[in-house]
Structure formats: C-alpha cells, structure tokens
Specification:
alpha/beta; Rossmann fold; 259 residues; 7 helices
Length: 259
C-alpha cells in the first residue's frame, strides 16, 4: 500500500459554495492505471464528498486515483440540476486531473443516489454531451445500489408517493432504446444487497435485462448481490486485517479480474 496525497475543496463549479467542490485522492506515483470519478449517496438530499474518504483513500493507496465530488441537492436543487453538476465534475476532471496525475482509463460511479447520477450520465447522453464529453472517453461505470427508475426524491419533488415506481425522462431505464455503439467496449459493475431497499434488487435486474435486450453483452456486465447486508451496508466494512473488501472488489473490476 502506497502513500496517498489528498487535495481538498477544489472548485469545479463557481458560485455553488461547498456543493461545487471536489476532493482528489492521489497515489504517490505520478502515473496510475485508473481514475475513478465518485459520487456519494444520501438520497439526493444529504451526504458529502467526505463520507467515503476511507474507501477513497484506500483506493488511492492501491494505485487508483479518485475524484470525490459534491453536488447540489434537494430541496435547494431540483431535477436535473444534480445530474448537471455530475456532468460538470466529469468535464472538470477530464480537463484538470492531468495537472496532478496521468491515467490510462476513467470510470464513473457512485453509491445509491451517486449511482443514480452515474446511470443518468451514461444512459442519457445529453448530460455529458453538453460539456463535450464523449462516451468513448469513459471505460465503464460502477452502479452501486442505484435506482434505475425515477428516484424516490424526484417523486417527492413532484408531490408523488416516493414509494411509487415511474419510468419517464428522469429514469435511467427510459433511455434504453436502439443500439449504443459507443458502449460496446465499456464495462459495468452493478451491485445490490440481498436485503436492499424494497424493489431495488429487482429494478437493477430489470435494468440488466433491458441492457442486454438493447445490445449490451453479458460479458460487459458484472452483477453481484452482496449477501448479508442492508442497503449499501458493505462499503465501509473491514475484514479481520483492517482492509476493505469493497476496495478489493473495485480494484479487480477496474483491472477486469472479476471474471
């Protein structure tokens, strides 16, 4: 495990306060194989870029550079402002991270609400296209316990029952149609818990089946059900040696060692 350089509170969006800041977790080398752009969870209404600092730090110690970003949240922000912020993070990272370190491949991912943001960046291309980010620049995605239907807090924004299931322009699933040639070389890690939020596992399995229907290969998708945990409860669990099995899982995925 190497040393880690942490650079905090870099501004990716002016006039957004703390919501427009991100942190870098960098390996001690000036070159790494993988850069991960990571979005925290919290239901689009809470959470912070520092929530998963232990995970980000251990990833960096293993040689993976991490951008951990804040974004505007409900109720101060409404759909699609938090997705637009996530797209700004990607654009900023592609432009500026090489000022600190070089990398070979870039992944986008997050936990729960952060996974929803990541799903929307991939399945609705307009968000990244707005900042001239090409899908071919992204090696893959980590959808960790995300909601591929309309997020429950977006339903709450609309005055609807947040337990309802909707598939419309605010749902990643809505955009799965036709073929996605740019995605053919990408890889996807999709995680859920066996004791997750009601319906979350089934929704992710529907997402996977729908991806396959629209040309994604089974070999592109690494789907894992994390047994014995509630929603996203496995991320910050340590093993007997004080390490994070979640980090090992991510590292293997980035290097395509899971299969």
């Amino acid at each position: 495990m190497g040393k880690v350089l942490t650079i905090e509170n870099l501004v990716y969006q002016e006039n957004a306060g703390k919501a427009g800041m991100l942190d870098l977790y960098l390996p001690e080398t000036k070159k790494c194989r993988t850069l991960l752009l990571f979005f925290h969870g919290g239901g689009l209404k809470s959470g912070d870029k520092t929530d998963d600092r232990n995970i980000c730090g251990e990833l960096a110690a293993c040689g993976i550079a991490v951008v951990s970003a804040n974004y505007r949240m409900y109720p101060e922000a409404v759909y699609p402002q938090y997705i637009e912020d996530a797209a700004r993070v990607v654009a900023w990272s592609l432009k500026h991270v090489t000022e600190y370190i070089t990398y070979d491949q870039i992944f986008i991912g997050g936990i729960s609400a952060g996974a929803y943001l990541s799903m929307m960046l991939h399945f609705q291309p307009k968000f990244l296209a707005e900042y001239d980010v090409k899908e071919r620049q992204i090696a893959g995605y980590v959808f960790d316990a995300g909601q591929p239907t309309v997020h429950y807090n977006i339903l709450r924004e609309r005055g609807k029952d947040p337990r309802s299931i909707r598939v419309d322009e605010a749902a990643p699933l809505y955009y799965l149609e036709g073929e996605r040639p740019a995605a053919q070389n990408q890889r996807f890690l999709i995680l859920v818990s066996d004791q997750d939020i009601v319906g979350r596992r089934e929704q992710n399995e529907l997402l996977i089946r729908t991806m396959e229907t629209h040309g994604y290969e089974k070999s592109q998708i690494n789907y894992q059900v994390m047994k014995g945990y509630h929603h996203a409860g496995y991320e910050n669990r340590k093993d007997a040696e004080g390490r994070y099995p979640y980090v090992e899982l991510l590292c293997k995925f980035f290097e395509n060692e899971n299969r």
